[in-house]
Amino acid sequence: MELSVVMPCLNEAETVETCVRKTIGFFEDKGIDGEVVIADNGSTDGSQQLARDAGARVVPVIDKGYGNALMGGIRAARGKYVAMGDADDSYDFTTLGPFLDELRDGADLVMGNRFKGGIADGAMPPLHRYLGNPVLSFIGRLFFGSKIGDFHCGLRAFEKDAIMRLGLQTGGMEFASEMVVKATLQGYDIREVPTTLSPDGRTRAPHLNTWRDGWRHLRFLLLYSPRWLFLIPGLVFMTLGLVAGIALSTGPVTVGEIAFDVDTLVGASAALVIGFQAVLFALLTKVYAMQEGFLPHDRRVQKIIDWWSLERGLLIGGLLAVAGLAGLVASLLHWRVNSFGELDPRHSLRIVVPAATALVMSFQAIFASLFVSILGIRRRQHPPLTDPAEEAAGVVDAAAHKAKRAAEKAEQAEQAEQAEKAEEKAADKAEEKVAAGSAEAAKETDGEGGPAER
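and the corresponding structure tokens:
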């Protein structure tokens, strides 16, 4: 089968039959070997029977959620290619021809673009049309280097095996973003087709919740991009904190009529520590995500991990600790010069704050090094002790050897049995010859004695 059209369904009795009939009509007009799969997520309005009567195959999906329903339908699809779209009649399934043409041409994922194809009046709330979708799509392009203009278009098509290899996990509306993000990270051939969005044919409110589902999309984009979640903000904080700290460590800094002094130095120290922690989190998150398969392998991160051994991390942390302790000793000496009395904060804090900052960063570096080493131990324990292919080959060879030995024993037993039978036949023949010879001798004896008796 070439094409399966999967539609998630939850109480779509008003529109599901129309969507199914349009799709089947498209198959017949274009001569496509296809099917319609309704991934039912627990409808209670009779949607299932309406879909069956229209010619669809209904697949019940127990786990609730847009993503769960779609993945249930995709797994059950029989086609080489799968197209997905909502069962609310907002998309015209008779326009799937360009999607299928792109797939036949070698595309892995073909996305609809509603902003290029046209959005009818009343088809999309203004908040979604002018803020939500454009902003989230922009963030997706910025974070992951994607060229897709409409991350959340519900009408899309793909090669089933290619999408199944992505291991999609999300169960809600963010499933739409996950598919595009993971396909982009894996280097898939992704193309766009202009798509028209029409007002849906339902009288009830849609399942989409603006703020909840918008946040879930944004959260997913952030969590799958440690670079933008941790690394870039961390580098910004570190840079600002380091520059301000160096400038203020020697004395006040005046910009126009504004004077920056030790209070700003404390803030700069905090920014430096927060930034350093964020950078470490970016590295740790990336290592974990790479090892667990959430994100693809990154050679740049791997080079850092290969260089940053536990010993080097401890050495760097130790040097920072020495610098911090040296600063604390200097502050004690400064206090001693003042007879351990009251100090001027504008002078004493310029020694204490950098020293305390160095000590905090030293422990951060040491703890991060230990944690990276723990992840490395876990990574090296993942591979099995024996290669599965070699182990399977060994089992097959052992079974073949055992079968060969059994055949040899059976052949030897058969040969022994045949030899025994041959010996028995030879013995029987020998006995027959002996018996025949005895009978002949008896006849001759009888013949010789006959005349004498007469």
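(Above: one complete record from the training split.) The first strand starts at residue 3 and ends at 9.
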